[in-house]
UniProtKB/TrEMBL annotation:
It comes from Cognaticolwellia beringensis. Keywords: Lyase, Periplasm, Signal. The keyword Electron transport does not apply. Residues 394-620 form the Heparinase II/III-like C-terminal domain. This is Alginate lyase. GO terms for molecular function: lyase activity.
């Protein structure tokens, strides 16, 4: 896209006549092109055929009609008020920022209502607002709150990302009202608003437009969709293949690079749902305009896989909060509402209707109509959440995000994270884990340090503590060596290295996974194996016990300090060792790398053997972490909040297993849910752990964890985490004079 330089120049009389003739031809062609578009508009996410079906649907009782009535009432209320298009001046969450966001949503909603009612007042409202923006946009400099050197700046918004989002919605609003506009109105709106904005997001912002990143996805989607609306196929090609159409960037390259073959997005679930909107929206537009591209079949149906994977990466309707995640985001987010509707429209998968029912939101599109009508007919089937290792990287071999699930008196899930870094939004937390049970987070991840769109809190942006705490390794449930973060908190180094998934396997009782990394610290090998287990209780027929077994092995040629934190949700109930608690004053645990934000609350040095820590979660269940201690290791109890002058951080608790001055060490622990506390009915059941003894030993290449329960119930979990073993490899070992055998990677033995 090239635009005339607006500097001063003079023309001869003959040149003026020549340009006038060209202008006549240009506007004649433009008028005929727009006339052709008008006959087929709308034709982006909502098509002419969709409108016909939707108009019929709002005459019949059902969810779609109810949604239409509610949306129309909302739009009617808003369009009574004066149109407000303020001069941009606020950052994220500020008044002008939020006003421009409301405007694009209002224009889109009014455009939909216009198509469904054919009442011109809605189209006129969109027209009037677009004309104001067409006057304003050419006058705008770069946004006054831009952060130079960090994000690509916008004009309406502090970053171009929001500008692209605005155009994704507003291009659709324009497409919806084109039939009502005069040629003069279309010319002003396009030349004053859409063409300069598309040019700004592409030609003037190549560093973002060509970037393989979610910011690039929004930009390419915005420009490509506008290209379809304005009949600019060249813009579409640039959106698909990079500004120079080399294929080094662009939408298709983003599909190639940002998703693994299973549909896992490199930045994690939170940004997967965010990036999903431009991916599925632009794809839907491509399908409507150029079905021959078969975009939803591209790369073996990667977009449909991505939608399903986004759902799979949730628990109790909330996304697993790895990397820079806001923990309150879940499956009802509008991005996934759109994704589920589009996926159902293509696949008719009844499991997706279950998710749509939980989302409890119908969108006014052709696919939204299909979902609404199917739900009216009660066609939904339970969505199947699974235990899966989602390969990371475009080849699926750059580590994995492992989800383990089971149901024992409530749904349990373990999230094990031997993934890649996740670009700039990634955290330095290789081999970390989280645990969920009975609808609640038990072993937690902090997520992002940010008050999203709360301008009063650092402009709604990421807080400084996102760097000094949330991204640092000690903020996560994984090993910290010498109080330094993985890769020394260097994003470039983190992106260049990733863990290796050694195996993922499961049967009816056990789901288990193992991974390693030797690049997080120079000269140190970290290897972790985690298992989610469902034990039949020998003395209680028909009942089962859920357990998480964790074996974390560290090897080095030099002595180091190894810290393994467990960030837990709940109130500490008891320990089976004496605590040296700080009663009158607190000090920070360290000076940097996140340690400066931890208050040292208590310390202990348990005796060799079993040590246990029990806490009570708000879900009414007790949790005991049982660990194997060597008599030389210590435990440190902490709370977040030190060196936090503006109270930016949540005051959450953790305990840290510390092994000092060691070359090699293995942390072994078992997490045990148990009992019930019911304050309403005033009863407590099984508040004490049933584990009486815990041991670990290495027999050749076989790790053996033995767990003894009250009542002489004993179990052995044996696993082989060596590299590249045969799937049906025969393994044998001897413990306490008894010989054991198993094939493959693991086996759970019940000892009687």
């Amino acid at each position: 896209m090239k635009f005339l330089n607006q500097g001063s120049f003079t023309l001869s009389f003959s040149q003026k006549k020549w340009l006038a003739a060209i202008a006549v031809v240009f506007f004649s062609i433009m008028g005929s092109t727009q006339a052709a578009i008008a006959k087929t508009s709308p034709n982006l996410v909502v098509t002419v055929a969709d409108v016909k079906n939707m108009r019929a649907a709002i005459k019949e009782d059902g969810q779609f009609k109810r949604t239409f009535i509610a949306s129309k009432a909302s739009v009617d209320e808003q369009i009574k008020r004066a149109i407000i298009v303020p001069m941009p001046q606020d950052g994220g969450g500020g008044y002008t920022h939020e006003r421009h966001k409301k405007n694009y949503k209002l224009m889109y909603d009014a455009g939909i209502i216009y198509q469904l009612t054919q009442d011109e007042k809605y189209a006129n409202y969109v027209r009037d607002m677009l004309l104001i923006y067409a006057d304003l946009y050419p006058t705008l400099p770069l946004h006054p709150k831009r952060k130079m050197g960090k994000q690509s700046p916008g004009k309406l918004f502090w970053q171009s990302l929001n500008e692209a989002m605005w155009l994704v919605y507003t291009s659709q609003a324009y497409d919806l009202v084109i039939p009502s506009l005069s040629t003069k109105e279309k010319t002003k709106i396009e030349t004053g608003l859409f063409r300069p904005m598309a040019n700004f997001l592409s030609v003037e912002s190549p560093q973002t437009f060509n970037k393989v990143h979610n910011h690039g996805t929004w930009a390419t989607a915005a420009v490509g969709m506008t290209g379809y609306v304005l009949g600019e196929q060249e813009w579409v090609e640039q959106a698909l293949y990079d500004l120079d159409k080399s294929g080094k960037g662009g939408f298709l390259r983003q599909l190639d690079e940002l998703f693994s073959p299973q549909g896992y997005y490199n930045e994690g679930p939170y940004y997967q749902r965010y990036a999903l909107m431009p991916f599925v929206t632009f794809a839907k537009v491509i399908q409507a305009n150029q079905p021959e591209r078969k975009i939803f079949e591209y790369r073996d149906g990667i977009l449909l896989k991505a939608i399903d994977t986004t759902i799979q990466l949730s628990y109790n309707k909330l996304f697993f909060p790895i990397n820079d995640a806001i923990k309150s985001k879940g499956i009802d987010t509008i991005e996934l509402v759109n994704g589920v509707a589009i996926a159902y429209g293509l696949t008719k998968d009844a499991g997706l209707l279950d998710i749509a029912k939980q989302q409890n939101e119908i969108i006014l599109t052709g696919d939204g109509l299909k979902v609404a009508q199917a739900l009216d007919r009660q066609l939904e089937q339970p969505y199947q959440f699974k235990s899966v290792a989602f390969g990371d990287g475009n080849d699926g071999k750059q580590g994995a995000l492992v989800v383990m699930r089971q149901n024992v008196n409530g749904e349990q899930a373990v999230l094990f994270k031997p993934t890649g870094q996740g670009l700039g939004h990634g955290h330095f937390d290789k081999l970390t884990w989280q645990f969920y049970d009975k609808g609640a987070e038990i072993v937690s991840d902090y997520g992002a340090a940010r008050f999203l769109n709360v301008e009063a809190k650092f402009g709604g942006r990421y807080l400084p503590e996102n760097q000094t705490w949330a991204k640092q390794t000690i903020a996560h449930n994984t090993v910290v060596v010498d109080e330094k973060s993985h890769f020394n908190a260097n994003v470039k180094m983190g992106n260049a290295n990733h863990p290796e998934l050694l195996f993922f396997d499961k049967n009816e009782q056990v789901t288990i996974s193992s991974a390693k990394i030797d690049s997080a610290y120079e000269g140190v090998l970290l290897k972790r194996t985690m298992a989610l287990i469902k034990l039949p209780l020998q003395n209680k027929p028909g009942q089962e016990q859920s357990l998480v077994i964790d074996v974390f092995n560290i090897e080095s040629n030099k002595a180091h300090q190894y810290d393994l934190p467990v960030h837990y949700k709940g109130h500490l109930i008891s320990t089976d060792f004496t605590l040296d608690t700080q009663l009158t004053s607190l000090s920070a645990l360290g000076k940097e790398n996140g340690y400066q934000h931890l208050w040292l609350k208590a310390q202990a040095q348990p005796k060799a053997g079993l040590s246990q820590i029990t806490w009570l979660n708000d879900n009414g269940r007790f949790y005991t972490s049982s660990a194997v201690m060597d008599g030389d290791s210590s435990l440190i109890f902490t709370q977040i909040g030190a060196n936090d002058p503006l109270f930016n951080l949540r005051n959450e608790n953790a305990f840290i297993h510390r092994k000092a001055k060691a070359k090699n060490h293995t942390f072994v622990s078992v997490l045990e849910p148990h009992g019930e506390y019911n304050p309403s009915k005033e009863f407590t059941i099984s508040a004490v752990s049933s584990i009486e003894n815990l041991s670990h030993q290495k027999v050749n290449n076989i790790d053996v964890v033995e767990i003894n329960f009250v009542g002489n119930q004993r179990y052995l979990l044996a696993f082989n985490s060596a590299n590249n073993i045969e799937k049906e490899q025969s393994n044998s070992f001897s413990v306490n004079g008894i010989n054991y055998k198993f094939e493959g990677r693991f086996k759970l033995f019940s000892i009687k």
